[in-house]
TrEMBL record:
Belongs to the threonine aldolase family. Its EC number is 4.1.2.48. Pfam families: Beta_elim_lyase (PF01212). This is Low-specificity L-threonine aldolase. Keywords: Lyase, Pyridoxal phosphate. It is an enzyme of class 4 (lyase). The keyword ATP-binding does not apply. GO terms for molecular function: lyase activity. Residues 3-283 form the Aromatic amino acid beta-eliminating lyase/threonine aldolase domain. Its cofactor is pyridoxal 5'-phosphate. The lineage of its organism: Bacteria, Bacillati, Actinomycetota, Actinomycetes, Mycobacteriales. PANTHER family: L-THREONINE ALDOLASE, L-THREONINE ALDOLASE-RELATED.
Length: 334
């Protein structure tokens, strides 16, 4: 199968599985797992932060960060299109008693500063207390402009807000922009990074920030059920990914560009955008379901929504891209 539905579908390679079986372990709830400790320290160092914390998922890492920054009745400012707001089951409100204030994202994924300024509530008993600005990079595959990140985080800090980055695909942003992860993390009090996306690990996210912030997040991780025991077997996969799967993200980006260029040649396909490892394409409503079925019959998995997101990853190579383009061309030529 050529699976373009997401970069979460990658399977651990034989070499990654071997690294997992070699991992030294201990009880990580007690802080005893040397492989988890190593991963946390390494990610903290690569992102220029003081401390790191391993989580089973990015959803839990983001939520623990929000809960570490905000208390009951506090508010966080977040993009309308952001994963933390839109795709995490409303966890901030449901489990954190934190009020989200969603703000419309501009087309480039930023939230204009005047929208942020206008949403910060006055200190008054009528209002939730605005505590945090959360951004996402990459967002919909797009790398946030670094000038904007510097301005927005400085602005937020100037207004007394903390800053959180959902950097699920921070390494895609780093490879695509040429900025090191530490530069992309600068200005943020906390950053959450996923290892189960383009980096190709089966499980795992790491949250980084100050010692104090990570100490708070560790408490909430336990509360949320994310305290894992011999988690070194999982952390070993993430360490393997840091060693072997970062530079190669450039291949995924090249494959996405090749896919976008190929699809753009086909009558019946509108390529809306391509950035890093994602392509967004549109098809006429009457083609959506039949095309998805046609592709499935040929071993190609895609979504079939109003706008189809096609994601490249380490289990998709250049030949696969050409196979996909040929299959779409054949559908429209039938
Ligand atoms: C995948 C993802 C997450 C976290 O997802 P999990 O599936 O819980 O690991 C968070 N933010 C973004 C932008 C993501 O793509």
């Amino acid at each position: 199968m050529i699976d373009l539905r997401s970069d979460t579908v990658t399977r651990p390679s034989t070499a990654m599985l071997a690294a997992m079986t070699r991992a030294q372990t201990g009880d990580d709830v007690w802080g005893d797992d040397p492989t988890v400790v190593l991963l946390q320290e390494r990610v903290a160092e690569e992102t220029g932060k003081k401390a790191g914390l391993f989580f089973p998922s990015g959803t839990q890492s983001n939520l623990a960060a929000l809960m570490a920054h905000c208390g009951r009745g506090d508010e966080y400012l977040v993009g309308q299109a952001a994963h933390t707001y839109k795709f995490e089951g409303g966890g901030a409100a449901v489990l954190g008693s934190i009020q989200p204030q969603p703000l419309d994202n501009a087309a480039d994924g930023t939230i204009p500063l005047e929208r942020i300024a206008a949403a910060i509530k006055p200190v008054d008993d009528h209002f939730a207390r605005t505590r945090l600005l959360a951004l996402e990079n990459t967002i919909g595959g797009t790398v946030l402009p670094q000038d904007y990140v510097a301005e927005a985080t400085a602005f937020a800090h100037g207004r007394g807000l903390a800053t959180h980055l959902d950097g699920a695909r921070l390494f895609n942003a780093a490879v695509a922009s040429g900025h090191p992860p530490a530069a992309l993390a600068q200005g943020f009090d906390s950053v959450s990074i996923c290892f189960s996306k383009g980096l190709g690990a089966p499980v795992g996210s790491v949250l980084v920030g100050s010692e104090a912030l990570i100490g708070e997040a560790r408490r909430w991780r336990k509360t949320l059920g994310g305290g894992m025991r011999q988690a070194g077997v999982l952390a070993a996969a993430c360490l393997y990914a840091l060693d072997h799967h970062v530079a190669r993200l450039a291949d995924d980006h090249a494959h996405a560009a090749r896919l976008a260029a190929g699809l753009a040649q086909i009558d019946g396909v509108t390529v809306v955008s391509q950035a890093t490892n994602m392509v967004f394409a549109r098809f006429a409503p009457e083609d959506r379901a039949p095309l998805a079925a046609w592709l499935t019959d040929r071993g190609i998995l895609t979504g079939a929504g109003e706008q189809t997101r096609l994601v490249t990853h380490l289990d998709v190579d250049a030949d696969d891209i050409d196979t996909v383009v040929a299959a779409v061309r054949a559908y429209f030529a039938r």
